[in-house]
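hi! just following up on the protien thing from before. the input was this:
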Amino acid sequence: MLTNTLTRGDDEVRRDWERFGLGAVVDEVISSYSTGWAKPHPAMFDRALASSGASADEAVMIGDEFLADVVGAKRAGMRAVWISAAPIEHAQYVERPDAVIESLLDLPSLLEPWLGEGP
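and the predicted 3d structure came back as:
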């Protein structure tokens, strides 16, 4: 999980997920508070990739903030999935998501074809 936070570090965000019974679905937490930079800064994505052991071409960023999540991920060399019901109206950025979904429920079928692709 890669998240922008103002006052909560990695450990606090992890405890939040555990408190809600969702700790098992989050392998690692990377917060902007602990990193010292917020998305879309490359330090956030670099830290997440290093922590996961994945290369940028093996990773996918899924988020609902166009600049922070889509632009940041694309500039880091990652795929980006934008969660949005709105059309893409960010002409000031050349980066575009690899896919757009309206709900996380749409994610498994979207990712399935990508799983077999190698770096």
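The longest strand covers residues 79-83.
Strands lie at 2-3, 30-31, 60-63, 79-83, 99-101.
cheers
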